[in-house]
Amino acid sequence: MTESLLLSRRDLDFLLYEWLDAEALTKRPRYAEHGRETFDAMLDLSAEMAARHFAPHNKKNDAQEPRFDGERVHIIPEVGEALRVFAGSGLLGATMDEEVGGLRLPSLVAGACMAWFQAANVGTCAYPFLTTGNANLLLAHGSREQIDTWVRPMVAGRFFGTMCLSEPQAGSSLADVRTRAEPRPDGRYRLFGSKMWISGGDHELAENIVHLVLARIPGGPPGVKGLSLFIVPKYLLNEDGSPGARNDVSLAGLNHKMGYRGTTNALLNFGEREGAWGELVGEPHRGLAYMFHMMNEARTGVGLGATALGYTGYLHALDYARGRPQGRPLTDRDPASPQVPIVEHADVRRMLLAQKAYVEGALGLCLYAARLLDEERTAPAEEERARARLLLDVLTPVVKSWPSQWCLAANDLAIQVHGGYGYTREYDVEQFYRDNRLNPIHEGTHGIHGLDLLGRKAVMNGGAGLRLLLETIAATARRADAAGGEAAEFGASLTAAAQRLGAVTAHLWAGGSPEEALANASVYLEAAGHVVLAWIWLEQLLAAQGGTSAFHAGKRQAARYFFRVELPRTGPQFDLLMARDLTAAQMDPDWF
Amino acid sequence: MTESLLLSRRDLDFLLYEWLDAEALTKRPRYAEHGRETFDAMLDLSAEMAARHFAPHNKKNDAQEPRFDGERVHIIPEVGEALRVFAGSGLLGATMDEEVGGLRLPSLVAGACMAWFQAANVGTCAYPFLTTGNANLLLAHGSREQIDTWVRPMVAGRFFGTMCLSEPQAGSSLADVRTRAEPRPDGRYRLFGSKMWISGGDHELAENIVHLVLARIPGGPPGVKGLSLFIVPKYLLNEDGSPGARNDVSLAGLNHKMGYRGTTNALLNFGEREGAWGELVGEPHRGLAYMFHMMNEARTGVGLGATALGYTGYLHALDYARGRPQGRPLTDRDPASPQVPIVEHADVRRMLLAQKAYVEGALGLCLYAARLLDEERTAPAEEERARARLLLDVLTPVVKSWPSQWCLAANDLAIQVHGGYGYTREYDVEQFYRDNRLNPIHEGTHGIHGLDLLGRKAVMNGGAGLRLLLETIAATARRADAAGGEAAEFGASLTAAAQRLGAVTAHLWAGGSPEEALANASVYLEAAGHVVLAWIWLEQLLAAQGGTSAFHAGKRQAARYFFRVELPRTGPQFDLLMARDLTAAQMDPDWF
After folding, report:
1. pLDDT tens digits, residue range A408-420?
2. What pLDDT, on a 0 to 100 scale, did the predictor assign at position B33?
């Protein structure tokens, strides 16, 4: 597959250099050894590796999904080959320090690199994605020895990582995790329990698998406050750090999914025999807080993966629409005249422009979030770092959920542009649609993120996070106002919508019970998401304003589309929230 | 599978007897031999056959889809067995006269019966569905001899039927059909050409396959005005009517779809050798008009199929939500207290209520349309018959498109209610979602129906169809106003929305070019669809008003949901249309 069907490099250049000023990061000590050349080289390399090693087996790994024969998991060989190439690039440690084998790239650049792989093959990508997240967690919360023992081989691609949270009786409700970890005299633990939905949970793609497992140490507090985090490897290590005997972790079975089939997804049993050896990460009972390090990264990654799937679907649809002749303009019904490419039809153009608005908006949002990570890490003043941390915190549910919803909608439109062909497995877009349908479910469902945004993020620290978001939006609107013309007009629309978001939040929490306030939390998430995306589009419009190229004209038109067609959707949503509508909440279960 | 996971018999009873007054039809001479007992008996039989013979192989036929080995098509044997049982019930001729083997049921009852089978197994259903449509076309436009030769064996289930319109270069654009039919001295024709996307195009489920083929007789006018309709059987008939030699029709290949896999979908070549024998239906060059007989029936059938898939998905989600414990109420975070079934969570209830509003609304719409067919056929006065015909004509794009969009949305929510489980093939809902994704594509894409509604149906006969729809809606609103209370309130909302629909239509066509008027035809279709569904829900609310049961309370709550959450979506859509927004239309293809 050619790179040009995966992502638009022109768009990445725009987002990184014309908007988010990636080059400014090279002034920071952490990134001083980088320059635009090294960023560009990594982007070139990623695009090329993605097209050459990841995209070609995307369809095959869907049709011939991983299979468990009761003994071992069989995966087509292309996956392992692609991952060896990937590990060789150093991207597993893209943002990490050199001392653990990392490239010390900004998250902004690393995110743009990862998007190429996710667009090419989201199933194969999940392995490095989880490995990096696992390693980052241990870098933040593990001991020096744990970093040496587990992180280095992961960054080198010798070991892969997982995150083990859910259990059959505990999906969204982590308070109900039952897996227990019994302390042993040598300081280690023996784990007993079942973990569900473990992506990359078993395979032979790496020498070892490093499971990060939430479990309870007997005697700890109930609920999430009694969860501790453990490193539980598939293979115990020999003295020299090489994998030795099997740990007591066994694969009970693989889930057979609608999409995302290339990633094994497993039910794992820990401690069917004498107990699975595990070592504690950090302090007891603080496991969930540590795990949030990885979960937040995973949530941003889910948003980026959803975006990448939407993006490649859009490019496929555009390519098809430019090449497929069908029908004639409304003013020329003469059947003797030649048919026109379907991109000429207004409704096809509408579907393409909607996709463009969704996927380029979502990519902008994800890269903006990555840029915040870089600010959090390297901004000169602590105040700036704290500001970035807070803004990222409040944005995370949107970064995870908005692309999951709207880039799936983009994939739906990509199928529709293809007509009947798009519905067949002979074409690519139906797989993107199936793959993307996972994203509103994993790493916190859509509903969970609604509760997170309205119930936690919007009210934490006396509402400081939401205030910061609204101030940041207001600053953009002021720039738009100064720019005049349609930017000012859209800025005014954005200001009105943002003020409504603030007013609705205050209204929902002004008296009344949490049940009432949160009854329509998902609607709130969606309305807030559209306000955030309108802001991202206004930012892109401002960045594109001076441009005279067709590319810049397209950016401006997509921004217009978002303001004219998408942002108005929030009107009825805010009305519903302001009315504190309880229609759904008051539906008696017996009435269904 | 139990019947109660397919459809709600209680709801069907409500729609048929408490709302649409099916019993009144038994006063009409055509249906005089029927009574509620026979209607109920057919519904009971359908539910039982669907659960017993259709549902059990739904998953298997998806996993082991039909396969073409280059010689013949292999289909799991359960399909043929189910279809033999179905044919034995007489339902292939449900609405037809006894003289051709039919049951002479009202379309209203026949539709309700078919919905059971579509909910159980939409893939297997497509064969009888197309066969009945084919036979109905020939009953309306075929000769006496054609009815005897082809219709009788189809009604008996010995022959199956197809409709062959599309070609590789002619999907939505039927003006570009190239298949040619050369007249021969004996009055028959030889056909040459390729037909694409032929559902049921090849199989060995029946003794013969009766293809209805659009083709051009040389010398005819170009475009759609030069299309004639032909009967082209897979096997030529012997003197005694039994199938004999193979006709020159060959299977070039099967399409491999995302869903709806149980139905073979074929590329057929006619006339690879000496030409495929065909006989003309009716007069030359009137083929498309005849085909519309079948297409309109198929479009209503698509709406009903989409509804049935949405409905069974909803019932599966409801069943899961009642049985799956997870999490606790917001006011009880004590991890020692037992988990509650997820139906207790507001967001799950919202997703279930939305599904209920979509699927029960859509079922109401489809059965209302079926009732119009009965009026068209049997109303005492010609004026009433003409009124029913006109109203059905204007409603057809909505009946096809609204369920295809919103019952797919219901399936999406059904997956979401199931969480990760819903994404696996171990559960049923992911298949419903994949199956349902076909419906916005076939029998006219969503965009084509937008053009049909705004470009043809809303303006035909000087706008008589749309006027009739708006008058019919207004009559319901007046009844609601008389009923008072919330019915009156919703009636006022409906009146305002319907008036806006009328005003928008007039505005779009008042000056300006057709391109401008039709630039947002899909948005118009969606807004009009929501107005129509609000009307259907107000009708259901009025029918449920006196009821004291939990079922009736549920109907009222679903109606409230539709008016409070769904109808307001039309506000921004109407705004966009009133602004004659050209953002998408003015997107230069080079700007993408």
Report:
1. 999 999 999 999 9
2. 95
Taking CA–CA distances from A408, the nearest residue in chain B reads B412
Q: Are residues A135 and A181 in the same domain?
A: no
- Nearest-Cα distance to chain A for B434, in Å, is 8
Look at residue B258 and tell me whether its pLDDT is greater than 80.
Answer: yes
User: Is B309 within the bounds of a domain?
Assistant: no
Within 10 angstroms of residue B586's Cβ, the number of other Cβ atoms is 14
Q: How far apart are CA A156 and CA A159, in angstroms?
A: 8
CB contact under 8 A, B430 and A258: yes
Which residue has better confidence, B294 or A480? Answer: A480
Burial string for B190-214 (b: 16+ CB within 10 Å, else e) reads bbbbbbbbbbbbbbebbebbbbbbb
For A44-95, the pLDDT digits (tens) are 999 999 999 999 999 999 999 999 999 999 999 999 999 999 999 999 999 9
Q: For A437, which of B322, B330, B423 is closest by C-beta distance?
A: B423
pTM attached to this predicted model: 0.98
Domain count across chain A = 3
Whether A108 and A203 share a structural domain: no
- Residue among A210, A216, A398 at smallest CA distance from A300: A398
Taking an 8 Å cut-off on Cβ atoms, the answer to whether B565 and A586 are in contact is: no
The CATH code of the domain that includes A123 is: 1.10.540.10
Write out pLDDT tens, residues A271-301: 999 999 999 999 999 999 999 988 888 999 9
Q: Which domain holds residue B167?
A: 159-284
A399 within domain boundaries = no
Residue given tokens 């650049």 in the structure block: A109
Residues B102, B155: contact at Cβ < 8 Å? Answer: yes
| pLDDT confidence bin for A205, thresholds 50/70/90 | very high
Q: Are residues A183 and A133 in the same domain?
A: no
* Single residue among B107, B124, B155 that ends a domain in this structure: B155
**A182 assigned to active site:** no
B151 and B260 assigned to the same domain? no
Domain-located, residue B65: yes
Please answer yes or no on whether A346 and B585 come within 8 Å at the CB atom: yes
Q: Does one domain contain both B169 and B187?
A: yes
- Rounded to the nearest angstrom, the minimum Cα separation between B109 and chain A is 24
- Quick one: average pLDDT of A142-170? 97
Q: Which amino acid is at B509?
A: W
Return the pLDDT at B215: 98
Give dist(CA A321, CA B399) in Å, integer: 28
By CA distance, what is A585's nearest residue in B?
Answer: B346
- Tens-digit pLDDT profile for residues B555-579: 999 999 999 999 999 999 999 999 9
Which of A131, A155, A179 is the last residue before a domain boundary?
Answer: A155
Here the tokens at position B479 are 């009844």
From B78, B279, B375, B443, the catalytic residue: B443
Q: Between chains, do B589 and A519 touch, taking CB under 8 Å as contact?
A: no
Residue numbers in B near A560 (CB within 8 A): 583
Q: Are residues A77 and A184 in the same domain?
A: no
Contact A430 B356 (CB under 8 A): no
**A318 part of a folded domain:** no
Within 8 A of B557 by CB-CB distance, chain A residues are: 583, 586-588, 591
Q: How far apart are CA B255 and CA A420, in angstroms?
A: 10
For testing contact with chain A, the best of B406, B449, B592 (most A CBs within 10 A) = B592
CB atoms within 10 A of CB A467: 16
Residues A224 and A192 occupy one common structural domain: yes
Is B423–A430 a contact, with Cβ atoms under 8 angstroms apart? no
Query: Domain holding A238: CATH number?
Result: 2.40.110.20
d(CA B291, CA A193): 62
Across the interface, of A415, A438, A589, the residue whose CB is closest to B322 is A589
Position A105, amino acid = L
Residue A109 shares a structural domain with residue A206 = no
H helices within B64-218, ranges in order?
77-88, 107-120, 122-141, 144-146, 152-155
pLDDT score for A568: 98
